[in-house]
Amino acid sequence: MRIARQLACATLGVLLSSSAFDAELLVEWGRLSAEVDGYQIERRLGIANDPFEPIARVDTFETRFRDRDVKVGVRYCYRVRGVRGDQVSPPSPELCSVARESEPEPAPAPAPAPPPRGEDREVKALRRPPPIYPREAQLRGLSGWVRLSFTVTAAGTTRDVRVLSSDPPGVFDQAALDAAQRFVYLPRLENDVPVDRPNVETEVTFTWIDRGGALINSPRRQGQR
Description:
With 225 residues, this protein is mostly beta strands. The chain has helices at residues 2-10, 135-140, 173-180, and strands at residues 16-21, 24-29, 38-45, 53-59, 64-67, 75-84, 87-88, 95-98, 124-127, 144-152, 158-167, 184-186, 188-190, 193-195, 197-207, 213-216.
């Protein structure tokens, strides 16, 4: 009888709460101050005059119970008793809840759109002064051409200028190389950033007509190879 009274007094402090999860209900309670062997969980349907029935017994260190034997949309009521040997305490206040489907997890937020890509642009000639016609070629009345390759730098200047081919060989090469050193370009852009552009090719054509002249990327006159 003394133990029963202790359990009866202890149950006054029991707190019961329940929360619905997908296909289960969670029942929680406060631990009794009296020494008990465990707890008995009782359940009934949430309709009038439905009796409570024991559905589980847990150890004394437990303070929660997951009831997975529930149906979505049905109302259930729970209460808890302290147990010691064959004695049980009076029940805690009952608490009722409806088993509901869990809310679907929200769809992940779409990834932010990448920033708009900047401008891409190839090199564009701004200034290409013609070369000086070689004196020897003038005296001999020679015409010809020189094919050049070079890098247009991010600053718009040229470097690594070299001769790919020429005709007549060696006659106009140096004049064409000297002129290419003075070329000025709009540099290549990649995503709005100026970058070096290697292997730019151009052709310088030297045509002797009375006083001689040189053109860049001009069609060769008939008879020029």
